[in-house]
Amino acid sequence: MGAGIMFISPNRKTLLIKRADYKLDPYSGYWNMAGGGEEKGESDYETAVRETREEIGEVNYQVFTHVETKMYTLFFAFVEEEFKPSLDHEHTDFKWVSIDSLSSYKLHPKDYYCLRKVNLL
Asked: What is the pLDDT of residues 38-90, one digit of tens each?
């Protein structure tokens, strides 16, 4: 199981981060929301908060809902403005993109299936 957060700015843009190239990672180069796998004893929300902090640094946000698939929970959160994330070694780039343009990006399946479930793709 895992969890992440989709940040939404006032102008309906969301933060995408690009996965670094790793030899054994079939999703190298894909775009995704901040998030990852749970550690023992964590709730989905605790996983999303920890993974987000590890991958992009401290951010002020307000979660307003979430969607669950079989293996992943994606939380949706408002931010007051677009920010520059402090990327970790797992990511090489970031973009703030229009939510309406998400279908044009090669998204990690964990995010893709969550976004399809709420009709954002």
From this structure: 999 999 999 999 999 999 999 999 999 999 999 999 999 999 999 999 999 99
Residue 103, token pair as written in the block? 């279908």
Pair of tokens at residue 8 = 């939404």
Q: Which helix (H) or strand (E) holds 35?
A: strand 34-37
Q: What are phi and psi of 4, to 5 degrees?
A: -155, -175
CA distances from 83 to 12, 19, 58, 67, 108 (A): 14, 19, 11, 24, 22
Contacts with 43 (C-beta within 8 Å, 6 or more apart), sequence order = none
Q: Which residue has the tokens 């479930």?
A: 117
CB 2 within 8 Å of CB 13: no
Measured at the CA of 120, the angle between CA 113 and CA 11, to 5 degrees, comes to: 130
The 10s digit of each residue's pLDDT in 24-50 is 899 999 999 999 999 999 999 999 999
pTM of the predicted model as reported, rounded to 2 decimal places: 0.95
**Residue the block writes with tokens 């969301």:** 14
